[in-house]
Amino acid sequence: MQPKDLLSLASAFGSPLYVYDAEKIASQYARLTDAFSKTGSLRINYAVKALSNIAILKLFRKLGAGLDTVSIQEVQLGLHAGFEPNKIIYTPNGVSFEEIEEAAHLGVQINIDNLSVLEHFGARYPKVPVCIRINPHVMAGGNSNISVGHIDSKFGISIHQMPHILRIVENTGMHINGIHMHTGSDILDIEVFLYAAEILFDAAKHFATLDFLDFGSGFKVPYKKGDIQTDIEELGRKLSKRFNAFEKEYGRKLTLAFEPGKFLVSEAGYFLAKVNVVKQTTSTVFAGIDSGFNHLIRPMLYGSQHYIENISNTKGKERFYTVVGYICETDTFANNCRIHEISEGNILCFHNAGAYCFSMSSNYNSRFRPAEVLWYNGKGLLIRERETFDDLLKNQVDVALD
Ligand SMILES: Cc1ncc(COP(=O)(O)O)c(C=O)c1O
Predict the structure, then answer these.
(1) pLDDT digits (tens, 9 = 90+) for 211-263
(2) What does the pLDDT look like over 58-98, one tens digit per residue?
């Protein structure tokens, strides 16, 4: 998107504002499906947690994707957005058994990552097809919070517990139709991915009735020009070849599934915020914006560095700024970074604001969550209204304390 389009959206819808470019989402989806075009059957399940606005879900439905969900509420959002239940996979971790039952009754694909839950579910619902989430014990991912396939992780059933899995499957007579893994986000080295894939192939050989192998996600996207990213095209070539060979060996048609979030929506998102104050101290020039980690927590939580552009002044002299929010604790988006000269009232644009940005926002400091706009066919469609004071009071019970 061009700075002038973003600027006009900020002036039409106010700030702070999230903007998502539908064309970029579609082109990332096409890039992924093209990279795996040599695979007989491919399924892309968009990870709803990355960005869950129903307009975005509808866009993915239009593109032909399925959904990856982690809570019953995400399942319900997917159904609300018009997805057939069989296009939704539900991969919970640590939820109640009742929630898993509810998802099963809604008809979505259940993915289980715990031996006791597997046993309980198999005993109760032996006819419901189940996918098993394996923990391959591979350390991969950009940050410890998002590296989830290692030995100390709470996710998945350890690959070393395969004999237990097989005993449960045999005793309950349950039907296993898929095997899944997700090692972490921001994986740079595709060799790590291919190594983990071999573990999944080995695990798959234990089951005769599989319909799909789900390789999770973890594709790294660039955050600035020249940044390293997962080479999707190379991964597509190598993994498709290996998958096709495995399918022959296995002797049954299989679908190759992925569940990306970041790869599909990160670069499509822009976060726009207005500079309230420019504050010169003895050491630093702060640009203080009308937002904070309540709206965009990734820099404080994961140390992510979002490229920040002054879209009100794209040609001025560059200066060093520390960009901060208005939250009453340390709330830094970027330290001493070069930005075209900033004046109070300018609009700053944070790139890569599609994934895990709005979906992780909160009302901390009793601030309203921002509006969201979908840039679709050259027009800005409002897909979520900015919150109001009524939203802050909603669900609060005003008791009399006499
Ligand atoms: C099980 C699972 N699948 C998919 C994803 C999406 O990962 P990414 O956004 O890196 O593509 C996640 C991210 O947390 C996940 O936990």
Answers:
(1) 999 999 989 999 988 888 899 999 999 999 999 999 999 999 999 999 999 99
(2) 999 999 999 999 999 999 999 999 999 999 999 999 999 99
Q: Is 369 in the pocket of ligand 1 (CB under 6 A)?
A: no
Q: What's the CATH code of the domain at 135?
A: 3.20.20.10
pLDDT at 150 over 70: no
Atom of ligand 1 nearest to the CA of 263: 11
Cα(224)–Cα(189) distance, integer angstroms: 18
CA distances from 247 to 87, 136, 175, 258 (A): 22, 20, 19, 17
User: Domain for residue 400, yes or no?
Assistant: no
Same domain, yes or no, for 253 and 306? no
The domain total for the chain is 2
Q: Are 245 and 204 in contact (CB under 8 A)?
A: no
3-state secondary structure of 175: coil
Say whether 328 is catalytic.
yes
Confidence (pLDDT) at 317: 96
Q: Which domain holds residue 197?
A: 23-261
Which residue among 202, 232, 261 closes a domain?
261
